[in-house]
Amino acid sequence: MEHRTLGQGLVVGAQGLGCMGMSDFYSDRDDEVSIATIHRALDLGVTLLDTADMCGPFTNERLLGRAIAGRRDSVVVATKFGNQRNDDGSFVGINGTPDYVRAACDASLQRLGVDHIDLYYQHRVDRTVPNEETWGAMKELVDAGKVRHLGISEASPDTIRRAHDVHPITAVQTEWSLWTRDPESNGVLEVVRELGIGFVPYSPLGRGMLAGRIRSLDELAPDDWRRRNPRFQGDNFAINLAIVDRVHELAAEKGVTAGQLALAWVQAQGDDVVPIPGTKRIAYLEENVAALDLELSVEDLERIEDIVPLGVASGDRYPDMSSINA
Question: What is the pTM assigned to this prediction?
Fold first, then answer.
């Protein structure tokens, strides 16, 4: 697999794997199937494995720790803190206090079964704590050898700059796909490129919608988080499904799946971009990785722009957008 460099020196496979859905928010969870999928990802050259302490909660880090036991040297482990949850899954809130940063890191190290975290993200920005204090604690973790690289997720350009002043940011993680192109218009992509920071798009397949397999909400399990997502509700769903159909038509012309075309578009946005599509199944993993072989011409990119222009998706990305771009 091709490799790409995030920030000033974190080298990873050109496509990572989002592990969140293996333990939370979606249905049909099976740890053994998920571990087999992670192992297959490593065999295919995927090195960046992405999780967060809030996923499960806490169980996704344990799952990842089991999966990478004995293969630690070939893995770049990325995890996050900031979305604080109780053991029963209820949300406490966003926490960026220095004491919480330190405690969260130690807990993640224990659950993952590793002596250091390769990439440690501030998952969401705590508006009640000066970000310099949060990042001061994160820098201490690097100095202590517990963390190698630092990242931030769903932050505004100003917050990114302020954090970067405390300690160089290796990666910014934000939702970015054909139907979520906010980073192109809100200044995030611009500041990332200016500061030499890597970009890690999550949900590059539009939470599975762009893969073209979801035709009705009835296909989603009752506990599937997407049932509460504005883009999957009411008229928004119909509008967004029509977008997917246009993507599928272009993909069919090229002999690939809609998901592969959508991933190829994200991957074509720059050598500093490493998407982390999530899946629990080996077949879908292999389909996603195969998208790395799809090269889009200038004409292809122009046609995609015509059918999926900036801002075309209908509905907010989350039911509550208050913690986004903070």
Answer: 0.96
